[in-house]
Amino acid sequence: MLEYKGVKIVWLGHDTFRISNDMSIYIDPYRLRREQGIKADILLISHEHFDHLSKDDIRKVIKADTIIVTTRRCADELKDVNVKEINTIKPWERVTIKGIDIEGVPAYNVNKINPDTKRPFHPKEDNMLGFIITLNGVRIYHAGDTDAIVEMGRLSGIDVALLPVSGTYVMTAEEAVDAVNMIRPKVAVPMHYGTIVGSEEDAKRFKEMVKVCEANILSREY
Length: 222
Prior knowledge:
Helices cover about 15% and strands about 30% of the residues. By secondary structure, the protein is of the alpha/beta class. The chain has a single domain, classed as Metallo-beta-lactamase, Chain A. The strands form two sheets. A seven-stranded mixed beta sheet has the order 1-2-3-4-5-6-7. Strand 3 and strand 4 form a beta hairpin. About 45% of the residues are buried.
């Protein structure tokens, strides 16, 4: 766990995080080992791929008054999930939920190409999401599934950046360092490794290369 100015950030594996103070925000629950005792006030789903939109895992974190923020494509797939409401946003749109500011930001590939379709695994035109969450004045950026993209240079005042490092479908560790140099957060945390692709070695390599801020590898919690 990382605690930053009273905000707790817990890594639950892959791209899954729980961010909390007096409210709990889950992002992209996937392969959770058990039902979560702390339920989601807000649930963020970055895009529709199976390792981000997993209904089995979503049901482990939601409660009757959970509010989901996601893409239109994901919202269509979540109509049968029992939550209070589902909000849809696109990159650069924002919404305030239960007093917490949530901004969608672009997440897409520039050089990770699906050999079968000849298209990026995460095409820009699909409007998949990363998120900036502002909680108690702390700005946390969850990059989603993305490469190091020019839009990262527009992000400002980021305290904690959660960045994929595994390569194949997302940034490599080296590319994630390029992202850090654009974003210049106070703390950088590697993610998207150890489940489908990538290993702890990617996270360690990322930490060793980061120079402009603190890099913190989180132990997975269950």
